[in-house]
Amino acid sequence: MAPGNRGKGKKEGKQKKKKNVAENEVEEKYRKAALEVDILKEHLALQRDVARQVKADKEGLKQRLLELERELEMSRDDKKDIYEEMIRQYQELQQQTETRIHHLETEAKQLQEQLATCREAIQQARVEREQELGKKDRTIAELQGKIDAMETEYEKILHGSLDRVLSKLAAAQGCWEKEATAMHTEHKERLREFGLNPLEI
What we know:
Low-confidence stretches: none
Helix content: over 70%
Mean pLDDT: 81
Shape: elongated
Number of strands: 0
Distance between the termini: 149 Å
Number of helices: 2
Strand content: under 5%
Oligomer: single chain
Radius of gyration: 62 Å
């Protein structure tokens, strides 16, 4: 293909791309517009339903208002009694409410006092427990000290006793050896008296 034709082909390709992009944009805009139209149609239908409902409610309220007006006209003679009864009920309710409020305030005050008392008792119990634990630890330490001192003392006594026993044993051993030597010598002499040699026996 000649160089001129190549340039022309590129231009046509670019123009075709631009055309496709433009068509895609138009289609996208069309889809968005169609979607908005559908949404507006649904909104309009909803508004119509609401308007119909409001109109129906309006008619119903108008009818109810007429009925109430008729009832009001019929009960106008009893209005004073009803009003007084309502005032009496309101005053009674107000009195009950005030009594209830007063009762709840008193109960809340008592509960706060009980809570404060409980907190004080807990604090006191905590302090007493800490004091008791401290006393217990001190007692244990004192007893441990006494035990250690007693062990040391018993060890001294035991060593002293053993030393005395060993001394007595040593002294007794000396005496026994002397006695044994004397007896041995005496027996040798007697054997010789009888003409026997002690080394041969």
